[in-house]
């Protein structure tokens, strides 16, 4: 059976994500051209600039929200335990999507699209000037101790330097106006939780502290896509997550 999924509108959240500490989002080593680095970061294959895959940000927000809402971790995706169910009103699964395990039940597509985050032009310029021996990034030696043999295992970890800024765009599809307020609230609190957690690898070593600097939230009603009339569209200038949270009531009432 197919779930009905009307598109009543789209809510587009824009802004920047600033790295307050070095960020490591790993790429497969085979994908790496520069030799010598044990743990490279993911890069755009054409421009070679590092970027943040939307799936990395989305996955992290999901896992924080699952824990915050006390959801059961009942599925295994690539070795990571996550929550996934077929209850169509589940706050996690309707927002982030779910694929039933074992092929039974309905697939719930995600209401969220988290775009890949490219570096801002300003950050690209700054990172083009740094001299670290790597293109646009830095590297750091981390010494991991093997807990069984006590042998040191030094590794070179590549990271995007602190101060780098990425462009953020998250699109939320309004399928049920009665759930808009709760969904946006959950999304924004996941972003807030992430600011006090970490993105990417090696968070326990201090990597991956990020801050969201939002700029605007725009609500485009379904009618706008047909008419482009301004009455079907509204935008709110915001500068922080707190400010965005304070606008939820108004956005949901539009
Ligand atoms: Zn669920």
What secondary-structure arrangement, pairings included, does this model have?
Layout: E1 9-19, H1 54-68, E2 75-77, E3 80-82, H2 91-96, E4 112-114, H3 121-129, E5 138-145, E6 152-159, E7 165-174, H4 177-195, E8 210-221, H5 224-227, E9 233-237, H6 241-253
Antiparallel strand pairs: 1-7, 1-8, 2-3, 4-7, 5-6, 8-9
Helix pairs in contact: 1-4, 4-6
The structure holds zinc ion.
Cofactors and ligands present? zinc ion
How is the largest sheet built, in terms of strand order? 4-7-1-8-9
Class of secondary structure makeup: alpha+beta
> Which assembly state applies to the chains in this document?
single chain
User: Roughly what is the average pLDDT, rounded to an integer?
Assistant: 90
Portion in helices: 25-40%
Output the number of helix runs. 6
Helix-strand topology string? EHEEHEHEEEHEHEH
Q: Uncertain regions: pLDDT < 50 for 5+ in a row?
A: none
Percentage of residues in strands: 15-25%
Largest sheet: 5 strands, antiparallel
Count of folded domains:
1
Terminal-residue CA separation: 32 Å
Total strand segments:
9
Label this structure with key terms.
254 residues; alpha+beta; five-stranded antiparallel β-sheet; 6 helices; 9 strands; binds zinc ion
Describe what you observe in this structure:
By secondary structure, the protein is an alpha+beta fold. The chain has one domain. It is 26% helix and 25% strand. The chain contains six helices and nine strands. It has helices at residues 54-68, 91-96, 121-129, 177-195, 224-227, 241-253; strands at 9-19, 75-77, 80-82, 112-114, 138-145, 152-159, 165-174, 210-221, 233-237. The strands form three sheets. The protein has a five-stranded antiparallel sheet. The protein has a two-stranded antiparallel sheet with strand order 2-3. A two-stranded antiparallel ribbon has the order 5-6. Strand 2 and strand 3 form a beta hairpin. The longest helix has 19 residues, at 177-195. 30% of the residues are buried. The mean pLDDT is 90. The site of zinc ion has 7 residues, from helix 2.
């Amino acid at each position: 059976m197919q779930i009905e999924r009307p598109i009543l509108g789209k809510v587009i959240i824009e802004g920047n994500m600033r790295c307050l500490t070095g960020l490591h989002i790993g790429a497969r080593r085979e994908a790496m051209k520069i030799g010598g680095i044990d743990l490279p970061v993911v890069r755009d294959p054409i421009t070679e600039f590092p970027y943040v895959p939307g799936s990395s940000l989305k996955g992290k927000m999901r896992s924080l929200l699952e824990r915050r809402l006390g959801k059961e971790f009942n599925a295994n995706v690539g070795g990571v335990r996550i929550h996934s169910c077929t209850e169509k009103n589940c706050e996690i699964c309707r927002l982030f999507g779910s694929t039933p395990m074992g092929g039974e039940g309905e697939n719930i597509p995600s209401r969220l699209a988290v775009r890949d985050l490219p570096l801002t032009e300003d950050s690209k310029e700054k990172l083009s000037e740094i001299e670290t021996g790597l293109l646009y990034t830095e590297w750091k030696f981390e010494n991991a101790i093997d807990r069984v043999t006590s042998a040191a295992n030094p590794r070179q970890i590549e990271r995007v330097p602190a101060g780098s800024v990425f462009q953020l765009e998250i699109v939320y599809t309004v399928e049920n106006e009665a759930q808009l307020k709760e969904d946006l609230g959950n999304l924004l609190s996941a972003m807030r939780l992430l600011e006090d957690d970490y993105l990417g690898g090696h968070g326990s070593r201090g990597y991956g502290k990020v801050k969201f600097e939002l700029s605007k939230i725009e609500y485009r009603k379904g009618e706008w896509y047909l008419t482009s009339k301004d009455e079907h569209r509204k935008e709110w200038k915001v500068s922080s997550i707190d400010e965005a949270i304070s606008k939820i009531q108004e956005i949901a009432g539009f």
